[in-house]
Amino acid sequence: MSLAVSLCQQSDYNPETLRLSLIRLLKPFGGIGSFVKPGQRVLIKPNLLAGKAPEKAVTTHPELVHQVILLVQQAGGLVTVGDSPGLGKPEQVARKCGLRAVIDATGANFAAFEDSLPVPFSGGTFHHLEVAREALETDVIINLPKLKTHQMMGYTGAVKNLFGLVVGARKARLHLQAGTDKAFFALMLLELAERFLPALNIMDAIVGSAWRATVRAVAIRCNSGHCWPPLHPRPWTLSPSGWLICRRTGSGHKKSHGKPAGRVSTSQRSPCSARPW
């Protein structure tokens, strides 16, 4: 099975160039209209780990979220943006990281992920799990992870970002359940991601962050052929300037397995590139 991935260079968060880059990024897949139909409820899931300023690169940059909201609205989608922060109350975190301002500016809804509902799982690492109500009441999930390191998983990507669908302190309990067993924690994340399969993942890899022993994030800019400071466990080899990375995983979250997008032909790759994951 080969799932298509589109890569597009983007050196900063300038609104105009970012909008154009997102359009080019999605072009190999047929544009945003391939994922969002008029009237559909769309949950945009950024990374809202903590209430840090955008330049700290701890959360998905608000301008990326802003431009994705606009694209979804232009396609006729009804947008809700939500996450369950690891540190702090959702409303406060959203304001501190600049996200609440762009949500209010677009007229989208903000979901604090305060209400949770039980979801049954068959076998695997757990038999049931409580997730945010909004994740169960949406038609489409668009996942916007931030490129960051992670102590257990090595780095945070599209799969790990969906852990934010688990509300509040329940995430901490699952961390404790996994303990130091990285394989168990990874399997748990995969089962969650399979159950709530996003239609689209767009990673903010323009500026990422690496966590140090001092428990503070160090912003990293991906340029000059690699990220500096290097992401643990080794520098990531990337072309000059930052990246937007897009992966099509399926037609929606309600199916257990998404339909593979297949390889994108060479003629579709310019000015962005698309390649198997």
What's the quick description here?
By secondary structure, the chain is α/β, with parallel strands linked by helices. The chain is globular, with a radius of gyration of 17 Å. Helix content is 26%, strand content 27%.
Descriptive notes:
The structure is a single chain. It contains eight helices and 14 strands. It is α/β, with parallel strands linked by helices and 277 residues long. Strands 1, 2, 3, 4, 7, 8, 9, 10, 11, 12, 13 and 14 form a twelve-stranded mixed β-sheet that branches. A two-stranded antiparallel sheet has the order 5-6. A hairpin with a 2-residue loop joins strand 11 (217-223) and strand 12. Helix 1 crosses helix 2 (62-74) and helix 2 (62-74) packs parallel to helix 4 (99-106). The longest helix has 14 residues, at 182-195. It starts with a strand and ends with a strand.
Shape: globular
Structural class: alpha/beta
Amount of helix: 25-40%
Distance between the termini: 10 Å
Can you tag this structure with a few keywords?
277 residues; alpha/beta; twelve-stranded mixed sheet; two-stranded antiparallel ribbon; globular
